[in-house]
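Morning F.,

Quick status update on the modeling queue. The single chain you submitted on Monday has been processed. Sequence for confirmation:
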Amino acid sequence: MEKDLAAVISKHRRWLDRMGLKDKPWLILGSAPDPTIPVGITSTHLRIDINNVGRTATALGLGRASLTIRARRKSWEEHQELDTQALLWIHEYPTPLLKALLALKPHKFVGSIGRISRRNRDALVAEIASTRLENIGELNKVTNGVAAVCYGLAIGVPRIVLAGISLSKNGHSYDQLERKRRQVDEDAYVLHRLSSHPALYTTEADLAMQTGLPLVRGPDTPTSGRNP
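Structure tokens below.
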């Protein structure tokens, strides 16, 4: 691991640890339609929202997110009630400037702000997946949902469960626009490489079948694959 990337990961470990978000299981919630969220899992796992999926979580009555990871270019108008203990913003601006920028954006509550640059996001994915994506797919980069997986593994989160992440469903759970899913090849490639990682699971049957990730139907016990 490069020294600069190791320093970034160490900084983020300290940031998450101060908020009690580092050493507990994560439920990473992506925005694919009809996410599979087992009953009780949000009482045993911290909910990590990707981009604007907090809008879906609000509609489902899931309450405040522990962490939201959002891209710089994602619309704030799509979800004007962002409610999250912490926000990891993929952005080039320094954190103090992001705090000022946040004040101009519609939101309900953001407790703490962290940042990671696009370059470091992609470097972290390459490090954790032990691969580079120059010749994979059209954009040669994973979605933020899969980047969040790599981020959590780099931080040392003990268990990560993926919900609302799909390689086959178009559109988003929070609208009816049916936008085409992008970066499918890149996501599939990285998730397949990570499928044997002992901390990684999914609640989505189609994702389990397509990547080899173990499937869970409850908060603790997998129904296929390795033991928790």
